[in-house]
Amino acid sequence: MARTEELLNLLRTNSVSRYLFRHASNTYVSSLRTVLNELGFGDDLNWKRLGDAPFYGEETVIAVRQFGRRNNNYTDGATVNPALLLQMVHLSESRPGMELIRRAIDRNQMDMAFVPSDPNNFGTQQLIPILKALGIAFNDVPDGLRKYARQQGLSNLSGTRMTDALGRALLADLRELYGPDMTGDQSTDPDDTNPPITPPDPIEPKPVTELKVVHSDQYVLVSDGDSQVQFRKRDPQGVVNFGYHTVTNFVNDNRNQLIDAGVIPEGIEVIEAVSQNEGRMDGINTYDRGFVSLGVFQWTLGSGAGEGELPALLKKIKSTYPRTFRQFFQAYGLDVSDDTNTTYGYLTYENQVIVTKPDKDQFRVPEWAFRFWRAAQEADVQTIQVKHALARLRNFYWHRAYAANGYPLNELVTSSYGVALLLDNHVNRPAWVGSCIQVAMNQTQLPSDPIQWSSRDENQLLDQYLKVRTSYSENGYAPMTKANERALAMKAALNRGALSDQRGSFQVRQAEIRSYGIPPGGEVTAKSVAPPTPGVAPPEDFSQNDYPIIKMDLPPE
């Protein structure tokens, strides 16, 4: 009942609309999907593939819509209203009472199982959510049973006792409110000729614990029998493989999966461009200050005893694709600490939090490098890498701490080309993005209010900013690494049309969603909503408190 309790908390705090809407991604969506699956809407949810993933995609939209139709609360499914959510809770809490009624009918024990006149009787308590789910307003259970009996035309019922006829009527009416594939409620009613079937749990793949490791002077080969990879050895310890899978190739082959996971089309293009200057999706090294560096932005465990960004990536994989996480991480004793947030955290290994340098050093070995590399071959993991990379914008683009001359970056730079440049800077030298833009603003003599800027004005600012960031430094740190070369990769994306330098071309809007269950040509598309001026509005679920400022994780010169 923990899932229904989470949903009840939303009702108690009047915050249903804040968390349950199309494209939302949070633990309440996971609870919603779990409850809807228990209520018989697993096929609509594509439960066998997606499980309790916390993303409110088109599958969830369809399941909410179908639930509303069965419960006379018609909705398009794009949001969950409080009345609909409360009905889900009532029906979820009705299931034990339904089973109790069935068993009592089969065993001719109705009077023993239910004593409506006794409010403390277990059976009586189970009737409360049933009556609520059927829309009966009542003062107590006997009152509710009397009203229901009158509705059904059942005579000579005082409401102080349950009968087989009353129990069968309750079951028949309730059955109409659940989905067609309700699980876990096998009917024992001899008159039910088509009882629901409980699908088996998916078979979890067995972890490969025995790896074959072959060393040579400069290389080490690791294989699990199906996949193998060659790492180059690096001093003082650790290995490296630059990877094979590029963001560009992944996007071309998996764009629909990315959009299903809530990655906006504009964001995909920005991450594609920035990734040219960073790692490949399965690129990994275990020799540098971060102990393990993986993926598009080379997320690490964190230097020294500090928190790292890699655990935050793994947490998103765990919440969105729990079965994939179990197979490639939890099966080997690896997990993320409970306090890991959107940006930073720690791993746990065999239920121990990995904090100290000796604890982190154990992950430098080829066996662990292989396991991270192997996980990064999976489309689920690669999808979350792209989504996590795009989420980095939330750490600075809308943050007042990065404001230049009093204006946040989302009001100053609104082209997809410009946003890509800022993100590229933030990945390499996160603390300096706002400062570099401010210096450039002061040197360009543009109108003080960016709402007056044209695309030409923004391009003038960006040209000057690119010059500033090549030499800008603070507190003894080296300037941005290969700033000019990195800028050329963004320029190349602009020249081939992947990015735009037109002001306002980057917009955080609702993405087109295609359900796994909808054939090509039958897509359901969410309408785009233009952001308010000035600048680029943040996503609907954005809260600055959820996204801390990213630290400069490198030593001064």
Instruction: Provide the helix percentage.
Output: 40-55%
Structural class estimated from helices and strands: mainly alpha
The amount of beta strand, in percent, is 5-15%
* Total discrete domains: 3
Strand order of the largest sheet: 1-2-3-4-5-6-7
Low-confidence stretches: 183-203, 510-533
Major sheet: size, sense and barrel closure?
Answer: 7 strands, antiparallel
Shape: globular
Question: What is the tally of helical segments?
Answer: 23
Query: Count the strands?
Result: 10
Terminal-residue CA separation: 55 Å
- What is the residue-mean pLDDT, rounded to a whole number? 85
Q: From the alpha-carbon coordinates, what is the Rg to the nearest angstrom?
A: 28 Å
What does this protein structure show overall?
With 557 residues, the protein is mainly alpha-helical. The protein folds into three domains: 2-175, no CATH class; 204-254 and 281-378, no CATH class; 396-557, no CATH class. It has 23 helices and ten strands. The strands form two sheets. Strands 1-2-3-4-5-6-7 form a seven-stranded antiparallel β-sheet, with helices on one face. It has a three-stranded antiparallel β-sheet with strand order 8-9-10, covered by helices on one side. A hairpin with a 5-residue loop joins β3 (228-233) and β4. The longest helix has 26 residues, at 82-107. Mean pLDDT is 85; it is low at 183-203 and 510-533.
